Amino acid sequence: MIQGGFVELRDIEIFLALAEELHFGRTAERLRVTPSRVSHVIKKAERRIGGPLFERTSRTVRLTPLGERLRDDLLPAHTQIQRAVDRAVAGARGISGTLRVGYSTPWCADLALQAAKVLRTRYPGCVVRTQEIQFNEPFGPLLRGELDLQISEFPVRTHGVTEGPVLLRERRALMVPADHPLAHQESVSMEDLAEVPLIRSDGGLPASLRDLHMPVRTPMGRPIPHGPSYTFWPEVLALVAAGLGASIVAARAASYHARPGIAFVPFADGPTVDYGVLWPATGQAQLAMTFVDVLVDLR
Q1: Which CATH class is domain 100-168+275-298?
Q2: d(CA 81, CA 293)
Q3: Phi-psi region for residue 70, left (φ > 0), alpha (ψ -120 to 50) or beta?
Q4: Which of 51, 114, 143, 226 is most deeply buried (CB count within 10 A of its CB)?
């Protein structure tokens, strides 16, 4: 960096990533650098630009108006540079072939198909085939080599699977029968889960996801009633509509799965539902990593 602007592309990437994540740790993890490296780059930029780019407290990180203007000015140019580099790499390495991508939700499918369209535009020799992942076998196709990449819920922490970047962070909602008392509230809390049976997967999900989406106790230790089990996602909609239980979902599920007999009530507390890219721990080819870069751009 020099007075009044950026010179090193990596420093620009760090600034733009922090402007999006608003978290030093997540930015460092995403770019595979240390948090101290992120802090050093930002402090150096602020000194040389002559003003603060971020407001930092012990709990939050926010862009200043100066930081917002810099982000808005840099982002289009950075995207154009990255695309030019991608095209050069594709030409040099001959990026082409078929990429098999799995997804666990309709909104993950939307993102995968948008990325496929961009990839085909940049690299006409590429073909992307998509496939829905079932909850009873969330990583089987990936581990068997039937898929190259997968977009689904985090965290995974499963042997043989590598977690890539987070693409979506979604507020959670409780999907309940429309005639249940909770359906008429503006929001629910994690403690409200003690008041309704929670529908559960009949197997396949790793403990990290099962504990997050199907807890057995509330934060205060109250037991959560065990509702019926399911194998495939459409069963959950039918079970909830029949009044047999509730399910924790991403809030945007209301736009995709609304039907008579079901209500979606947002949580006022609790973690988000995060979705990201997964690939086999054995590694990936250039085409797959190029597709991941496109996904990150689109998010």
Answers
A1: alpha beta
A2: 13
A3: alpha
A4: 143
